[in-house]
Design goal:
Layout: H1 2-9, H2 17-29, H3 34-46, H4 51-68, H5 72-85, H6 94-107, H7 112-128, H8 133-145, H9 150-166, H10 171-180, H11 184-192
Helix pairs in contact: 1-3, 2-3, 2-4, 3-4, 3-5, 4-5, 4-6, 5-7, 6-8, 7-8, 7-9, 8-9, 10-11
Amino acid sequence: ANATLSGILQISKEEMSGLTDESKRLGAETAKTAGEVVELQTAYARLGFSQSEIIDLTEATINGSIALNAELGETATLTGAMVNTFDDLGTTDAPRILDVMSLATAKSALNFEKLQKGLPIVAGAANAAGISFTRTTALLGKLSDSGIDVSTSATSLRNIFIESAAQGLNYSEIIQKIKDSQDKLTASNDEFGKPF
């Protein structure tokens, strides 16, 4: 596993001693084995993170995967994608990202699989529209609580963010206009060309 990781990072085994030491330490101190830690380090390496960034991300990902009841590699892939997508997030924000996702699964109808499916659909448009990761996750949670399929809600949110930007408006302003309307379906259709 370490040979695969060093190949992805394009460094020698000796040069990745920091990652090796980290996997041994976390394998001894957490519920995960050193081999499982290397698996998540490999997932981050495949996403283009450097050795020091992977070290920033690793321990929080282990804790988050336990809280989310998710596989380490899948947790790493989703967390890394959010760091790569949202301009205001960095590798040191991993604990906050994982806390937000864990809280969303505890306080809404979302689970890890729904986050894994919905966040990548909406994240790029949310970032472009200036909507934070936390707000995006909360919106997905609220829609999930209403029984809306996550791929439908994520796609609809993405379209709302794109259409709002095309109109030069903040999505919150458009949503408020719809909310204040007597006929919300018609108002939604007027704003977005279809009901959401």
